[in-house]
Design brief:
The chain has 361 residues and is of the alpha/beta class. Helices cover 44% and strands 18% of the residues. It has two domains: 2-171, Rossmann fold, CATH 3.40.50.1970; 174-359, Dehydroquinate synthase-like - alpha domain (Dehydroquinate synthase-like, alpha domain).
């Protein structure tokens, strides 16, 4: 078992532990009771995860709400089902919400906790690799709406993150690689996230591919810890994304548009991100922002992890561009791009010529 911590600068009350290890789910309430004062819990999960792990979280003090599985259900209608359930069972301010599932469940449960009675505690128990390395950490919670992904949301830090590596055994290869997309994202931005440290994530990924795909427990614990600490380093400096936290959106400006124009049904979030990262590397190379050697090394890493890097349809470029303009990261009507600049480093660009943006597609 490995423990690390998210420390929010000048906001000690929002600091919290991330506990990573094999079988930590078996003692979930022992950990939860250490970090919350709640008497009762509303546990939010979906049909798939409930069948796998619901029994482990049953207790006399816990009520369940079981939602349908899928990104298309990450909306206001589902959010209101969670808050209605909280009202129905008369959850109080001192009580807590538990998110048991992947990124969709974590985002919705956290958003519900952020608005219920103006904010109550919540706990993240991520069961996918994507959620364990990224979405469960940092306090971003949201739902999608007609006009884009995560356009309605809040910053609401969990009290605790419990990442049980055993849950990764139940992921199929597609979902596992969805999480690996976010892992590789951190390899491409490591130095920008933590300039005073060197986790050697890029090299770790190059050397440990087989161990990662074989889901070796020690390797996965190290991998999850590195990603969480890189994200924590950024969140500590910029909790509410006023500046450097935007660096975590590497590949996401393209990715969110891909998800939206395909109605969140064709690609997983991680698949959209891996395509988005390939697009941004193509764009950076075309603009002479990176060397050809680094471009080749980065694309090789994407290919070595068998990630999707191309669309299997030809998009309408004007529609794609207009969709990108509706992203929440637009600033002063200009799209914000996270552009690679050298190995493990990226920079934030607040404006990019339309023709260049389209050339990246």
């Amino acid at each position: 078992m490995i423990t690390t911590e998210v420390k929010i600068k000048e906001k000690k009350a929002s600091s919290y532990p991330i506990i990573i290890g094999e079988g930590v789910l078996n003692n979930a309430y022992d950990y939860i009771k250490q970090y919350t004062k709640a008497n009762r819990y509303l546990l939010v999960t979906n049909t798939t995860v409930f069948k796998l792990y619901g029994d482990k979280l049953k207790s006399d003090n816990t009520e369940f709400i079981i939602l349908p599985d899928g990104e298309k259900y990450k909306n206001m209608e589902t959010l209101l089902k969670i808050t209605d359930k909280a009202l129905q069972i008369q959850l109080e301010r001192k009580d807590a919400v538990i998110a048991l599932g992947g990124g969709v469940i974590g985002d919705m449960a956290g958003f519900a906790a952020s608005i219920y009675q103006r904010g109550i505690d919540f706990i993240q128990i991520p069961t996918t690799l994507l959620a364990q390395v990224d979405s469960s950490v940092g306090g971003k919670v949201a739902v999608n709406c007609t006009f884009g992904k995560n356009m309605l949301g809040a910053f609401h830090q969990p009290k605790l993150v419990l990442a049980d590596t055993n849950t990764l055994d139940t992921l199929d290869l597609r979902q596992f690689k969805t999480g690996l997309s976010e892992v590789l994202k951190y390899a491409f931005i490591e130095k920008t996230c933590a300039p005073d440290k060197d986790y050697h994530l890029f090299e770790f990924l190059q050397k440990n591919r087989n161990e990662i795909f074989n889901k070796d427990r020690n390797t996965l614990e190290k991998l999850i810890k590195i990603c969480c600490e890189l994200k924590s380093s950024v969140v500590n400096k910029d909790e509410t994304e006023k500046g450097i936290r935007a660096i975590l959106n590497f590949g996401h400006t393209y990715a969110h548009a891909i998800e939206k124009i395909t109605n969140y049904e064709k690609y997983t979030h991680g698949e959209a991100v891996s395509i988005g990262m390939k697009f941004i590397f193509d764009l950076a190379l075309g603009l002479n922002k990176i060397s050809k050697d680094y471009y080749n090394e980065a694309i090789k890493l994407l290919n070595d992890y068998e990630l999707i890097t191309t669309l299997d349809f030809k998009p309408n470029k004007e529609e794609f561009y207009e969709t990108m303009k509706s992203d929440k990261k637009v600033k002063d009507k200009n799209m914000v791009f996270i552009m690679p600049k050298s190995k493990k480093e990226a920079e934030i660009l607040n404006n990019c010529d339309k023709n260049h943006v389209l050339r990246g597609i």
